[in-house]
Design brief:
Number of helices: 5
Helix content: 40-55%
Largest sheet: none
Structural class: mainly alpha
Distance between the termini: 81 Å
Number of strands: 0
Order of helices and strands: HHHHH
Length: 168
């Protein structure tokens, strides 16, 4: 199934669905289908629109749910019902194609998975950071850094010191 979805052309799918939504738009059909597919044609053409692609990939499966609700609540003629069902069925592979395209472009739905290999943003309590501190080793360092030794030379002692206490 995944090979079938990867072989589909998202541009042709969105073009066919946009044309079908435009053809049936003057009649009693869901009004949101044409704007969604027009937005999808924009997203498909723009290769750097990762956030828009994520939005479209989220709107499309939600519109499948709304299509089912809309068809339950509204009456349509036989041919228009057939075309609405065809449009609904075309949304399923289109959703898969755009989810794959979103993954290839580096997008993801927030909360549906974590990027284990990605950067972790946290800081150690107490203000310990990796910048400017000696003796702190980050996880990515291969060799441990030895803390810099501050050589404290004791002050010279006077030769003649009287008293019960002496400094060592």
């Amino acid at each position: 199934m995944a090979d079938f979805i990867q072989a589909l052309d998202p541009a042709k799918l969105v073009l066919a669905e946009t044309a079908l939504a435009f053809i049936i738009s003057p009649f009693t059909v869901p009004a949101y289908n044409l704007p969604i597919f027009l937005f999808g044609s924009y997203v498909q053409e723009s290769s750097d629109a990762t956030q828009s692609l994520t939005l479209f990939a989220g709107l499309l499966p939600m519109s499948i749910f709304y299509d089912v609700l809309w068809m339950i609540k509204n009456e349509q003629g036989g041919f228009l019902r057939f075309l609405t069902v065809v449009l609904l069925l075309l949304k399923i592979p289109t959703t898969g194609v755009f989810l794959i395209a979103m993954r290839q472009r580096g997008g993801q739905f927030p909360g549906l998975g974590t990027d284990i290999n990605g950067p972790t943003v946290w800081s150690m309590p107490g203000g310990f950071t990796s910048g400017g501190r000696d003796g702190y080793q980050t996880v990515d360092d291969d060799t441990p850094r030895a803390p810099s030794k501050v050589s404290s030379v004791p002050a010279p002692q006077p030769a003649n010191q009287s008293g019960a206490y002496q400094s060592v």
